[in-house]
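Margin note from the TA: students keep mixing up input and output lines. Inputs are the sequences; the output is the structure of the whole complex. Example:
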Amino acid sequence: MLRKKYRVGILGATGTVGQRFIQLLENHPQFEVTALAASDRSQGKAYAEACVWRLAGEMPTSVRSIKVAPPEPPLDCDLIFSSLPGEIARAVEEGFAHAGYPVLSNSSACRMDRDVPLVIPEVNHEHFALIETQRRARSFDRGMIVTNPNCSTIMLALALAPLHRRFGIEAVVVTTLQALSGAGYPGVPSLDVCDNVLPFIDKEEEKIETETLKILGRLRESSIEMANIKMSAQCHRVNVTDGHMAAVRVKFTRPASLEEVTEALASWRSLPQEMELPSAPERPIIVRNEPDRPQPRLDRDSSKGMSVTVGRIRPDGVLDVRFVALSHNTIRGAAGAAILNAEMLIALGYLA
Ligand code: NAP
């Protein structure tokens, strides 16, 4: 039996992540884009007129004539994907949730709220249970706010999750090399970043250090007990268009050989894979053995941008093990992450 598709509205539809949503949702089996919203610069115009399409390939014809609306209810859709700037996201997303819309947000605004699930479906889909607490606490009826993590955190937490489960993790030291598209458009001025590396990304280190602990934390009745892991993150913006990289060092609670670590990463499959959700990669983590991989240009599109590639797994002279991880920041790190969350919510009956 053919099920009617969920009608989707995208907030921040003209931006870097918004365009990626539109690209990934073209021909999606469960969703069709019916509403688009952006700033007053774009409102009232047809999407094709408001948006300068910056992804490879053509803007999907199905969205070209949709009129860009203000980001406020009502919108002609059943659920909302939000890619609004953090400064305005909270009020807007709460407004939609109060009006009865499920909101799946990329923004950092509500991620660390105690009653807001911060979810990577392979890692902590059970945290969706916070939705009931949230609805009671905020008097939402059918609405909800569900978030996906920061683009670097997703990559890191995905790579750490099978290791934490198998060996326990005591400490993590991570150094990121992050792509330009992570700053949105137009992002970092070219004269600042050409022939250069910028050792500062506003609030990024704090986000990685706190969000990872919430994601790897345990659901205890109506809240999350943060994981007890010492975290240290340093973040850098590098001259790469797409694909965040992270050099990671880990200290385990129990001894683990390199073979066991490699096997734990490479063999890991979780509920989205078992349920064959449309956006779930066959393997959340792809382990590469070549000495010079992963690389952004070669590995960011693994499994259509939804797998994290891990390589250079080695013993570490200070902690226990080190490796390099890489993932596509606007796909697994943003739009693809929110879409996979929505697919998981449907599969678990939260969007009935
Ligand atoms: P972006 O390229 O700057 O796009 C921002 C979008 O928000 C545009 O559609 C813009 O519309 C709209 N907007 C700006 N101010 C607005 C306002 N006052 N009212 C309504 N709409 C407004 O940014 P982005 O990179 O897509 O990031 C969007 C969000 O996703 C941010 O919260 C970011 O932290 C998060 N995120 C980004 C990435 C990434 O890799 N880029 C990854 C994870 C999470 P106009 O075009 O009309 O101005």
